[in-house]
Amino acid sequence: MKNQSFMEQLNLNDTAYLWDSNINDGYPYIDIEAPAIQVMYNKNDENSAVTVTLQANEKIKKKSGFKLSEDEMQLVKTYYVNYEEDVVVEDMNGNGTTINIKIEGIVENDKQIYNIYTREDLMEISDRLKARESFENKTVNLMNDIEISDDESFLWEPLGTFSNPFNGTFLGNNHTISGIYSEGYTEEKGFFGVCSGATITKLNLDKISFTGYAEYVGGLAAYTDDDTTIKRCTVNANLDIDSSKRDTQDITREVGILVGAANDTIIQSCTTKGSNKLTTVYGDSVALGGIVGYR
Predict the structure, then answer these.
(1) Which of these three, 103, 137, 166, is where a domain ends?
(2) Is residue 108 part of a domain?
(3) By C-alpha distance, which of 174, 67, 180 is closest to 127?
(4) Which of 175, 180, 190, 246 is the most buried (most CB within 10 A)?
(5) What is the pLDDT of residues 40-78, one digit of tens each?
């Protein structure tokens, strides 16, 4: 019993068993403070996605990339690619349990065009990016005007990150996406977080309101590079950004109503309106622009 192989025979999903050769004379023990988590996998009929539900025995904290249930006892995430990750689930006091999630057997989607009619369709694109699906040679086609939120009750998580940027084509077709809100600290703030080698055309963004801080902030995109092209887009955004240091987080560095930081990026025939304000400037310099913060 005093080895890791025995631990692997225990049901770690139902009980917070831990093992450490220096604790409890080397025998498995229960971490009373850590939340007990049950992991449930549900594969869809086409074997193209797996929804993972983390069920806790008490209220738990929101986790980036997961949807928290109304009773705050479930975290849910849909995976569209085979992937493995360790997820730390914390209770309301910050005590954490590490869960290993391993997704196997997915028949990866070769769909090349995603037609977007509703907020739910748009959220599927967000979920696919969070699950590290690449959009290279794929097109997102906006078919309707979409209101994401009308009262700031829904906080937007940007499309694309530095670990998995949006690298496809987004055709706005002169439609408008409105009601995009973000507050507090996030890694990036924008409708798109990070775009690399992407093409974005004829997209209108309205009623954007960002407060708090992030290293890169932009109404349309926080950070772009690798020959990203942005054409004929409009952005109406109010950015009220705090550039002060927050614990060990990076301070805000680049803020633009269209793009925060545009590296190796082509921008043509785009317009912006709204306001761009820093409430506090601290430490290093901050680049601030009505269209682009830094280029």
Answers:
(1) 103
(2) no
(3) 67
(4) 190
(5) 999 988 787 899 999 999 999 998 778 899 999 999 988
Instruction: Give strand pairing partners of 224.
Output: 195, 262
Check if the beta carbon of residue 161 is closer than 8 Å to that of residue 192. Answer: no
Q: Is 254 exposed, middle or buried (0-12, 13-18, 19+ CB in 10 A)?
A: buried
Hey, what are 200's tokens? 């974005």
Strands (E) in 144-284, as ranges, are 146-147, 169-171, 176-182, 188-189, 192-196, 199-201, 204-212, 216-218, 221-225, 228-231, 234-243, 254-256, 259-262, 265-268, 271-281
Q: How far apart are CA 194 and CA 130, in angstroms?
A: 12
Give yes or no: residues 33 and 177 share one domain.
no
> What is the pTM for the complete model shown?
0.69
Tokens encoding 176 = 């408008």
Region 228-247 average pLDDT: 82
Q: Using an 8 Å Cβ cutoff, are 207 and 180 in contact?
A: yes
For 74, the domain range is 4-103
